[in-house]
Write a structure and sequence with these properties.
Distance between the termini: 47 Å
Largest sheet: 9 strands, mixed
InterPro entries: NAD(P)-bd_dom_sf, Sacchrp_dh-like_C, Sacchrp_dh_NADP-bd
Number of domains: 2
Number of strands: 18
CATH class of the largest domain: Alpha Beta
Pfam family, one: Sacchrp_dh_C
CATH topology of the largest domain: Dihydrodipicolinate Reductase, domain 2
Bound molecules: NADPH dihydro-nicotinamide-adenine-dinucleotide phosphate
Domain Saccharopine dehydrogenase-like C-terminal: 141-390
Domain Saccharopine dehydrogenase NADP binding: 5-137
Strand content: 25-35%
CATH superfamily of the largest domain: Dihydrodipicolinate Reductase, domain 2
Helix content: 25-40%
Protein name: Carboxynorspermidine dehydrogenase
């Protein structure tokens, strides 16, 4: 159906490219490019073994717009799927505009020297994509991504409006390591050490990172401590669903993880301010990343399940008063590894990236412009989640959350 160029060859990319190859009726030709070609070749070898599909590989620096444009032209792609890092989003959007192809990513742009999770840089591309007749889809992972589509599906089928929403992200998996992150360590640690922020009655409420803790009994996982934190979809959800009074994001962390982060932060290892080390300037967090386990190698070691979803409260469509729904997916680390060689955090991000890309190639999401996931029709995306390894469930709760 369409030729696709994937940029980045980490954990998320590996899961996404395997799933694209399993759907070769939609992804007729895949080119995978990253800054180190051998990482692409490793993924291509596994894809060939698991699916029989040949993918092309290339080396490219995503910050080099001219090189990316040349690669787009050479590959004949009509869609670029950005599974590199958030720092590269704007350059890759520039390359798509210049080459005249569509764009999709899983994380909002971040300047490398500021841990700011804001959409305005990418929203500023709206007119340029519209005028070029091209589509850019932002945040097609699980959160943001599936959690945003869950909210839209509830609003389309169950609730007239969403008064309050809580996004609950639980990783009940264990990889046996003293300390390891489940996706890129640099991005993960920037996220969890940032101030917690939630939307309440028309304003942001800020609190220190990892201080507001609640125990929650997650379906398929059991009781875990989850912490209030900021996540980028809060900004887009409160912007596009203007009726939302309160929007919060929660993520589970074990005590050992929290203790490690606190110690590392206390001694300055999570800082993104440059320091001099033996005559060279280094960024402590980037150095830390280089000594931590590579998340793409954790697949074989990780056991347990993830459970990610939304609890939303609003007026029922059928006029029966206020209702609360919990909509979620449970995903098993070992099953993901058996299928595509990745742990569930890479899988739950890579599969929605594949499904979002499929929406563009199938022509379901073709409106020119820059869109967040909750702005798009949810139905085919939700069907594809059920068909491609991320089945979801929805249940009515007795009332709004009490935490
Ligand atoms: P990884 O670090 O494993 O992979 C990133 C890849 O991008 C690596 O292959 C890296 O190359 C490559 N890369 C980095 N810089 C460049 C560059 N300048 N040019 C070309 N390639 C480059 O990250 P993950 O797979 O864990 O995460 C990928 C993305 O997914 C991130 O943006 C992350 O924030 C997002 N994410 C989104 C989630 C969601 O639910 N929405 C959840 C989890 C992650 P090299 O291998 O050489 O380092």
């Amino acid at each position: 159906m369409g030729k696709t160029l994937v940029i980045g060859a980490g954990g998320v990319s590996s899961a996404a490219v395997h799933k694209m190859a399993m759907n070769s009726d939609i992804f007729s030709e895949i080119t995978l490019a990253s800054r180190r070609k051998f990482k692409c070749d490793d993924i291509a070898k596994s894809v060939k073994e698991k699916t029989g599909v040949e993918i092309k590989t290339a080396e490219v620096d995503a910050m080099d717009v001219a090189a990316v444009v040349a690669l787009i032209k050479e590959s004949g792609a009509e869609l670029l799927v950005n599974l590199a890092l958030p720092y590269q989003d704007l350059k890759l959007m520039d390359a798509c505009l210049e080459a005249g192809i569509n764009y999709l990513d899983t994380a909002n742009y971040e300047p490398e020297d500021e841990a700011k999770f804001e959409y305005h840089w990418q929203w500023a591309y709206q007119e340029r994509f519209k005028e070029a007749g091209l589509t850019a889809i932002l945040g097609s992972g699980f959160d943001p991504g599936v959690t945003s589509v869950f909210a839209t599906w509830l609003k389309k089928h169950k609730l007239e409006n969403i008064r309050q929403i809580d996004i609950l992200d639980c990783n009940g998996g264990d990889n046996g390591k003293a300390f390891a992150t489940n996706f890129n360590p640099e991005i993960n640690i920037r996220e969890v050490t940032a101030d917690a922020r939630h939307w309440e009655k028309g304003d942001w409420v800020t609190s220190p990172a990892m201080t507001h803790k609640v125990a929650f009994d997650f379906p398929g996982v059991g009781e875990k401590n989850m912490y209030l934190m900021y996540h980028e979809e809060l900004e887009s959800l409160k912007t596009h669903f203007t009726e939302i009074e309160r929007a919060r994001f929660w993520m589970t962390f074990g005590d050992a993880y929290i203790n490690h982060v606190r110690v590392l932060e206390g001694i300055g290892m999570t800082s993104i301010e440059p320091v001099m080390h033996e005559g060279h300037e280094i960024i402590p967090l980037q150095f830390l990343k280089s000594v931590l386990p590579d998340p793409s190698g954790l697949g074989e070691l990780t056991k347990g399940k993830t459970c990610i979803g939304d609890i939303a409260t609003g007026q029922a469509k059928d006029g029966s008063g206020e209702k609360t729904y919990y909509i979620y997916n449970i995903c098993d680390h070992e099953e993901c590894y058996a299928e595509v060689g990745s742990q569930a955090v890479s899988y739950t991000t890579g599969v929605p990236a594949m499904i979002g890309a499929a929406q563009i190639l199938k022509g379901n999401w073709k409106e020119p412009g820059v869109w967040n996931m909750e702005q798009l029709d949810p139905d085919n995306f939700m069907d594809m989640l059920n068909e491609h390894g991320l089945p979801w469930q929805v249940k009515e709760l007795d009332g709004p959350v009490q935490f």
